[in-house]
Each structure stands twice: as C-alpha cells, then as structure tokens.
Amino acid sequence: MMSILKTLDFFTAHQKLDQLSSGRCGIEKEGLRYTQQHQLSTAPHPTILGHSLTHERLTTDFAESLLELVTPAMKTSTAALTELNNLHHILAHSQADYLLNGSMPAYLDDPESVAIGYYGESNSGKMRRLYRQGLAIRYGKAMQLIAGIHYNYSFSDALLDTYAQSQGTVADRQFVDNAYLNVIRNIRQFGWITAYLFGHSPALDASFLRGKSHCLESLDGDTLCLPYATSLRLSDIGYQSKTDTIVRANRLDDYLHDLRRSVLTPSPTFAALGLFGADGKQQQMNTHLLQIENEYYTAARPKQITEPGEAPLHALQSRGIAYVELRTLDINCFAANGISQAQLDFLTVFMVYCLFNPAPALTVEQEHHAKTNLSKVACCGRDPSLTLTDKDQQTTVPEWGNRLLDAMLPIAIALDEANKGNTFIDAINEQKAKFDNAERTPAAHILATLQGDKSHAPTSYHHFITSLSQTQYQAMHQIELTPAQIRQRDTDARQSYDSAEALFAASAAKPFARYLADYYDQIIALATN
C-alpha cells in the first residue's frame, strides 16, 4: 500500500483534495434525565417526544431515564452538530427534567430500581426490552447507566474511488470492506488517543460503586477518582464484558466468524443466572457469551444499515460495511451538546488518517496489547511514568501521541488547503498542547475543579455535573422553539407512534418465540470461512 504522503500526492495531482472532507458524519449522544432537584428521574419517557422504539432521532437506550439523541448522517460535522443542538433545544422545551451532560451518573439512590426501557408489545419492542433485561442481570444496572458519544463516519463513494485508483485497483465491495476494516484496526491500535485527549470522566459519584470493591481514591466521601485517570467510563469499572472475546477485524469473514461464534457459544456463567427468572418469565435472550452482536463492547464497530428484524451480522455479510461507529468518546461536559466542533474537526482528520495509514493484520497478542493500552490510558493516562506497548516497544503517552499527531498533520494541511482555512491544523495543534502538558487535558481540568484551589472551594462530582448540566439546560430553555422546530417535534412524534402501531399489528402473525428463533437463524446460517 502507498504511504500517506504518496496517497495525498495522488489526490493533489488529480485535483481531488476536496474529497477528503466529503464523508458523512452522524452523532449519537446518550444522557440521563435528572429532575430539577438533581435526582435521577423516575418518570417514563415523555409522550410528547414520540415512541422510543420507532422515533428516528429521540429514543431511549437502556433505561426509561437514559435518552439517546441521534442525528442523521450529515454532509458536514458542522451540520451534524447543528442538528444535535436542535435536538437538545427541543428536549429543553419538552420535559421538566434536564439532561445530565456527563458520562458517569450523578448520585444514584438505588441503581437496581431503575426502570428498564419499555418499547411496547410488538415483537421488536419485546426483543429490545428483553436484551436490556439480560444486560441488567449480567452486568448490573449501574454499568448500563454510563453515557457516551458514538461517532458514525462514512467515506464518500468519490473518495473511495480515488483512493482505490491510487492503489491501482477499483472500489468494489471487497476494497471498500477492507478499507473500513483498515480503519477499525487503526482505531484499535490508536483509539487510546481519544481517551487521553477527550476523556471527561476521571471521577464519579461514590453511589455508583456502593457495596462494591474498587481501587479508586476518595476525594470528599461523596466522590471517587483515580489521580491520573482520563476516562473511568472506558476503564474496568465502566463498559466491560465478562468474556475476553477477541473479534478479529483482519477480514470481514474473520469479524463475522468470531462474533457469530460468541453469539452461539454457551456460557456457564450466564447459564447459572437462568434463562428464566423466579417469576417464570424469560429474563435474557439466551445464556450464551453474547445475547446479540451489540453486547460486544469494542472501540469501533463496522456497521451496515439493517432492515426491520434483520441481524446486524446478516446485514454486514449481505451488503458489506457502510460506515464505522467510533465508541471511545466521553461526553464533553463543557460543551452544551456533549461534543465540540474542535473535537469533530480532529476526528475528521483522525478518520482519514485511519483510512490512509496501512494497518497490517493484527495478531491476538497485538489485540491484547491494544486493549491493555486503552485500559491503561483510561485509568492513568496522565501519569508521567506510564508506558504503552507500540510494536513490542515501550513508549510514553506524550512520545507516541506526538508521533501520531505529526503523522496526521499532512492530512490536516491537505484538508485546510481544500477548504481554504486553518480549521484542521488548529484542531491538531490544540490536541498537541495536551501531550505537551497533561494538565491541559479535560480530565485534569475536571479534577482540579473538584479539588479546588485558592480561587474556588472543592466540590463533589455530583454537585459539579448537576449544576453545570442544569445551567446548560436553562440556557437552552430560555431560547424559544421556532414554529418549524415545534412542527418537526410533533410530526416526528406522530410518525413514530404510527410506525409503532404498524409494528404491533404486524407482530400478531408471529409469536415472540418464533420471532427470536428467526433472528438467531440468520446468524446460524451465516457462511464464514
């Protein structure tokens, strides 16, 4: 494969630099609803927002109180951020609760009493709820209340065509699949960089770990932290699977084979929990390593848009990879929308870098190194003595981080040349400052705020994140909705209820047990090598 510089030279020679920023960007943001008295809301999903199963932009994730805001795939990151802001604005005028703008929950009275999301009595609604019930008994409800940002990115057909030409081939399905898998392998190796640069969860409320053993330090009795942490969300106390499954991303068949095996392999641990509860009702989808593909926690996923009732693995095998979902982003509590334009500009450069930078097939050992690197940075990424494993060599976070940013700089320069500005170079330089001085990371800023100094008193994580989130909500609420926004909210809600009714009517012809069996039959029937 060509080097990055030679690839950029090819795009320049063919006057195609504008294609570097022609991809589509979508953002999914999760957030817990808290009352104005700073308690986790126990109210059901607001009816004015539509049906949580079928609404395309406003839904719930694990719990009734865990909202998920979903933008469409937009032509620019600016457009995606504008749409995300629009959704926040609509929320601020459609419910009394505010959205907690942080990854780790504020005070939790009793996590196990949290109401799991309800999606109606259609087969797809029952399946979505049953999957979440399974997550609850497998991992506990508290873990499922952690929120994050998912960044979806696809490259344009035009860019992929030019890139294929630069490699002396054509952008057929195999080339496109391999290109996206190259991106995913690079994200696995370098995904720790987003935890360091954008980690916003070095501390949490002590109630999150009530009754559990841990190694965190106490700040004030109500707040726990790790002194050099960047993202507790990505650490061992955050999103974790109870299996050490490695799902290879060297070929699409590898990915399908490994994930299929995990969905179909029985787990003694989960079998011991019981497929059915004491009340005789089914409480998890199966007793295998994974209930479904989504249970596999990873830094990035290859994605294809699914048809109703279609398993994601079937969609990938049938139609290939359409985009990549990056999952290592904490919510940026200092940005009212949970993510900033500067972050999105950096991610544009990062995604193009992950496409153009050749990523050889990863061995199982290298996969483990990558997971360990991410875990280390999440827990203690700002520790000056920390080392990571890069190609069997030990290196410090600043050394490796600066090398990566230097390698990304030519892409930023090319993007700015095409867009006639300095946006992308500025985004790289802003991140470079964080490697030069770890105190400039958002995680360090948050801890310094919690610890206090001569200018301000110490504060708990609960008070910090609820006060900040409520202030952001109030600022949104002060701006009236436009008639167009009201029409959008009401039309989207009405359409979601109509779609939910249609799903319910269609479900009458098929028992739920048959619906589940048909879903798994798709996975069983996958032909992988």
TrEMBL record:
Key words, A-Z: ATP-binding, Glutathione biosynthesis, Ligase, Nucleotide-binding
Name-wise, this protein is Glutamate--cysteine ligase
| Reactions it catalyzes | L-cysteine + L-glutamate + ATP = gamma-L-glutamyl-L-cysteine + ADP + phosphate + H(+)
Pathway(s) this gene product operates in, as recorded in its UniProt entry: Sulfur metabolism; glutathione biosynthesis; glutathione from L-cysteine and L-glutamate: step 1/2
Family affiliation:
Belongs to the glutamate--cysteine ligase type 1 family. Type 1 subfamily.
Can you name one GO molecular function term for this protein? glutamate-cysteine ligase activity
EC number in record: 6.3.2.2
Q: What class of enzyme is it?
A: ligase
Q: Which SUPFAM superfamilies does the entry mention?
A: Glutamine synthetase/guanido kinase
Instruction: Determine the domain of life of the protein's source.
Output: Bacteria
Which biological process, per GO, is one annotated for this protein?
glutathione biosynthetic process
Q: Does the keyword Hydrolase apply?
A: no
Give the UniProt entry's GO cellular component terms: cytosol
HAMAP family assigned to the protein according to its UniProt record, in alphabetical order:
Glu_cys_ligase
Domain named Glutamate--cysteine ligase: residues: 9-377
